[in-house]
Amino acid sequence: MSESVQEKASFIVVANRLPVDRVSGDDDQVSWRTSPGGLVTALEPVMQSRGGAWIGWHGAPDEQVEPFHHQGYDIIPVPLSSQDVEQFYEGFSNATLWPLFHDCIAEPVFHREWWDCFRKVNRRFAQAVAERADNGATVWVQDYQLMLVPQYLRELRPDLRIGFFLHIPFPPPELFSRLPWRSEIIEGVLGSDLLGFQFPGCVSNFIRVARRLPDVEGARGRVHLPDGRMVSIKAFPISIDAVGMRDLANSPEVRAEAEKLRHELGDPQTILFGVDRLDYSKGLRGRVRAIGELFDSHQLDPETTVFLQLATPSRERVEEYRALRGDIDLMVGRINSESDSLARSPIAYRYTSVPRETLAAMYQIADLMIVTPLRDGMNLVAKEYLACRSRNDSALVLSEFAGAALELKQAYMVNPYDIDGMKATILKALNDPPRVKARKMRAMRKQVFEHDIDLWADSFLTELESD
Ligand code: ADQ
Fold first, then answer.
1. Which atom in ligand 1 lies closest to the alpha carbon of residue 238?
2. What pLDDT, in 10s, does the model give residues 283-331?
3. Cα–Cα dist 180/115, whole Å
4. Structure pTM?
5. Residue 312 CA, closest ligand 1 atom number
6. Which end of the chain is less crowded, N or C, counting CB atoms within 10 A of the terminal residue's CB?
7. What is the residue range of 246's domain?
8. Distance from Cα 84 to the centre of ligand 1, integer Å
9. What is the pLDDT of residues 334-350, one digit of tens each?
């Protein structure tokens, strides 16, 4: 395979972010490192075998980076100015669409300037793809930041096969209808040949909304447009590299790190674990409240039990995220300061991102994994935990509002708005007999290993490329 950037590509992935992070060496030499993440793991082999390009933003504003070749495929950076970051990314993507699509847990903000910028940047991405795509190429557009790209791209290049996958939920029509630009967004994604969602409820929500457009008809996974085109719409639940995650967790290095971590936590008998981006959709406030009350009432004993919560910094310039961070700091501080135990704090809370190895070690020592989003497209954390737990001696508490709940039916299911219900389920998950837990874990692990990320990518692309 050539090491130079190809002029044209027959397979293109376009996403808001590129799959690489810039690293500066001691000698100020700049290099690029593959970012960790399921999407990259899944799509790298496909791009390498087909000769692909990944088009997206490299992460720093007001900077033009030349295309380069990386690990067998091409990286094509699309520049964003500081104003684009503010209005397209932090604004329309993350303060309008994100809360709107997560059932309005936070109030969506509508600004006409943000919308104008969103259109402008989506055109820029579509233009970049149009210039790079070979005749008849397959293009896979990722996520809510690029919902207008399919339409703009089709206008420029009707010869392409265009797929779109939404990683977050698609809301019910009653909520989606609030969006002043609702028709434009729907027309935007309908530029695709195939539209993928995380779970079937999103498919029906979308079809109900699309049918409101003039002369559009839709039913049973298809939408027919006035120009005679037909768009297929289907659920493709995303997953993880289950074998890769299991092998990582079982490696001697990770096992050693797990032992070290357990010791650093004071060798507790029981470890409860949560790990999320610090996002209001992940249900952290309710989770911390429920566990705090269990410690307060001594239903959880701080002498023997620790709740380890890791939160990855996220969207720190968006107001809702700053407020959330402050709230969690306060709640954790209060619970820890009021604890009777002088030996250790009941909650070990870290606001940081950690390497995959450390995360795998944490999954290894967690007796109870707690995943309680108020709304989530899928939630990969739940699946990663299952992949790492070969001994079947632990339990997963899972929100019924995560896409993952539709596949992981044997989890200890909770309504994350119901604090008392969550407390009772956490205690039940800790105290159920080992054979009950083992049965649940086996069934869920089977589901995750049989439905991994390769299957997800293959089924989407096979469907997109079939006639
Ligand atoms: P996210 O909202 O980012 O993704 P999620 O599915 O939970 O949510 O994936 C988060 C990823 O980040 C996991 O792989 C996890 O291991 C990692 N991670 C979290 N905190 C970390 C930390 N402190 N250090 C290191 N790694 C950390 C969106 C949608 C989801 C959907 C995915 C994929 O919101 O619903 O599942 O896309 O489609």
1. 38
2. 999 999 999 999 999 999 999 999 999 999 888 888 889 999 999 999 9
3. 10
4. 0.96
5. 23
6. C
7. 242-450
8. 24
9. 999 998 877 789 999 99
